[in-house]
Amino acid sequence: MEKRFEICPTTELPPGERTITELNGISVGVFNVDGEYYALKNDCPHQRAPLCMGKVTGTTSVERTGEVNWEDNGHILRCPWHGWEFDIETGRSVFNPHKVRARSFEATVESVDEDSADHEADRPSTPDECDCGSSGDEPPVETYEVTVEDEIVVVYL
Questions:
Q1: Is 53 helix (H, G, I), strand (E, B) or coil?
Q2: Is the pLDDT of residue 33 over 60?
Q3: Most exposed among 82, 99, 109, 142, judged by the fewest C-beta atoms under 10 Å?
Q4: pTM for the model
Q5: Helix, strand, coil proportions of the chain in percent (round to 5)?
């Protein structure tokens, strides 16, 4: 059975950024790649390096001798210890995608459930409901600006 973990509002993880967090005892890196979210175990399959602390980059490919192309910019994670490269979207290694891969987890964006953000017990009382003996035009309580995030990044382990 998968467990659901709320990571952060989408506004706190803009494109090209990552966050590393511990989920159920597992270190996980969550990445925003061009507005899509991906999660990888922070563990390189080569020698157990903290993979998600590596550089987010691209990679090269060769079509013909002497013709090198730069591709997948911002989609490749390079291990900080030995430079092994992994596709952030799939966890597959660049050099041997069929045999070597980093563990990946489902990452998604979910809307904040308005019903859960609107609990009766959490609402402050209105001046008419308050029996605080206040009179006049001044409200009996201080007010604060409140914002509600529309979407949050969620990872399933």
A1: helix
A2: yes
A3: 142
A4: 0.74
A5: 5, 45, 50
